[in-house]
Each structure stands twice: as structure tokens, then as C-alpha cells.
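Sample intake sheet
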Amino acid sequence: MTFLFFLVFFLLVDYYLFQAVLTVSKDWSAGWKAGVRYGFWIPTVIAILALAWWMFTDPYKISTATRNWILTGLFATYFSKIFGIVFVFVDDLQRGLRWVANMFYNPEPEKLAGPAISRSEFLAKTALVASAIPFGAMAYGIISGAHDYRVKRVTVKLPNLPKAFDGLTIGHVSDIHSGSFFNKVAVKGGVEMLLDEKPDLIFFTGDLVNNEASEVKDYINIFDKFKAPLGVYSVTGNHDYGDYHNWRSIDEKRANFKNLIEAHRLMDFHLLMNENHIIEQGGEKLAILGNENWGGGRFAKYGKLNLAHKGTEEAAVKLLLSHDPSHWDAQVRPLYKDIDVQFSGHTHGFQFGVEIGNFKWSPSQYAYKQWAGLYQQDHQYLYVNRGFGYLGYPGRIGMPPELTIMKLERA
């Protein structure tokens, strides 16, 4: 039934937009007319074959990247076409109203001639142009936006920051999603950009892969270049547990997670699984707390912040790595007021948005109260990284991948 629904949906959308193609090409030469009209249906045939493959075979037998490309192609094609048929509908609406009017009033024949290009033809051309705009934007987001890494700099002033840690710089990376990458050279360039900043610490806040630990295999020798004088610390995100994959057995799923943990070790990431690490300088202590994924709503709650917090009482400053920013309002602020800064990711800024100066907008804000950048409530801070990689749609539009550099200063 699902296949039949999408089949009918695809055909209806294509048939409706095809009316614009017929209108625009009606005066073309026979060769061009036939080429365009028959060519219009080629993507439809490809889309139906891709849909059948998805519905009636096992798409998990091939790579995550291939699945993403197929889904992206289907979405981009039909979202663009739906955008275009709005104008075809407007044309049908005005012609329908004109037909109804003619039932009551028949204008004089000379008034029917109208301009050289009828409104119907104008709207048909507009529909085809409008269809090209979102498709072009998505293509640009893949070609240019996917690996257009940007460094975001932010300073946080803490009244309780010891002098020994005044000026400490932290490089923050999140949501690598290595199974989605298609340009290893560009990924390497992103790593080098962060290293050029020479941070004292590096934090990675989860989602190393999409589903399977094997996805990161070809990138271990890239991400193991992340180095900092005080170490590289990491936590797990919701995608790291393999919860969105159809495993043959629970043992296979457990083995996958074990391999993911091993990948962190091979990259020399200090993975904090509901635990903490104390850094001491000049007799002063700073605690790095690492919480396993804990998300609001439907997301899995593996984290145990009470265990991560245990033993940090003597640390003057506490920095928490927790993948999902919803954790901040749900547990951190109400129950652990001595946690100074939480570092998160997860939202990707929906990989789509607008940021101009202090103005920022993304559909992400309708799903997450805190979705990108720095937030403060009383004396506590949350920073949400926009993500290093991408998921599903292999690109970014107006929401480039982020490398955060946070500087801690005494207030």
C-alpha cells in the first residue's frame, strides 16, 4: 500500500506539472518539443525504480551514503516539483474563475485577444522556473555547503574560573556522521582548520557515525590528527548506539557498539561514558564530565549524570559534554547548578537556515529551544555546535558546518 501511495503521488505531481511543459513547448520545433516532453518523464521512471528498490529490497545492504543520495534525489526532485505546481494551480484557478464568469457574461470578441504572451503561458514558465529554484539550492548546498567549514568564536566569562585556567581555549566539534561523507580531502581540510587554532582542549560531543561503527574506518587516520595539549575528550550521541539499524541479533548490535568505542580509542579520543576527568594546573582543578546520550522526548536516555558528576565536588569549574541540548533544561539546570558550561550538538541547525549578524533562523528552532550557538541562564551556559557533518541530505544551505573555539575567561 505504501508503494502504491507514493506511485500515485509521483504520477499525479508529474502529470500536473507536465501541463506547464506542454504549454511552454507548444510552439517549439518538433525535435525540441519531443525531446523535452519525453525527457520530462525520465526522472519519474528513475524515481519509481528507486522507490521499488527501497520498498522491496533491503537498502541496508549497501552503504549509508548511497541510501542518502537516493533519498535526497527523490526529495529534491519532488519537493521542487511541488513548489512549481503551485503556479500551475494558480493558473488553473484563474482560468476556472474566468470560465465561471463567462457563464454569466460573454465579453466582446476583440477583448479576448489579450497580450502576445497569455497569462497561462507566463504562469507555466514561472512554474518551471520555480521548480528549478529549490532543486538548484539543494544542489548548491551539496556542492558548496557540505564542507564549507566555518570557525565560530565565543568567549564565556566565569566568576569561579581559577587564574590557572584563565584564557583556556576549547575546540568543540560535534556530529561527524562519517558514514555520510563523500569528500575525504575536504574533511581533512576541516580537521586542519581546527588544528590551526591551536586549542588547549578539544571536545567531541557525539554522533561519530550514522548507524554502524564500520563507517568511520576510512576516517580514523584523519580524525586521529585531532590533538591538543590537555587532551581530546568525547561522548556518544544517539546515532552511535545503532538504534536506527536493523540488526540480526542483539549480540551483533553490542559488537557494533564495542567497535565504536574502539574507534574512539584508535583516534586517541578520551571517551567519557558517564564519568569524568579532572585536569589540575597550579593546584586548581577543572572537571570534564562526559554523559552518554540523554535526550528529551523519543530519544534514548543512556546517560547517568549522577555518575558523571560523582567525584567532581572539589573542581572549581565543571564542563559537561552531553550530545543533546535538551538535557540542559531537563536535568542539568534543575539538578546540577554547579555545572558551568554544557557542550552539545545534535540539532545540525537542521542543515538549513539563515544567519545574518545577530539574526538567526532555522526550522530547528521549532523543535529545540536551544538549537545553535551560546545560551545563558543565570550563571550557567550551554553551547550548541551546528555540526561537522551531515545526515540524510548530504549538504547544508545557510547553515555551514561548524568548528567552535570557546575561550574561558575570569569574570
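Comment: The chain has two domains: 2-144, 149-410. The domain at 149-410 is CATH 3.60.21.10 (Purple Acid Phosphatase; chain A, domain 2).
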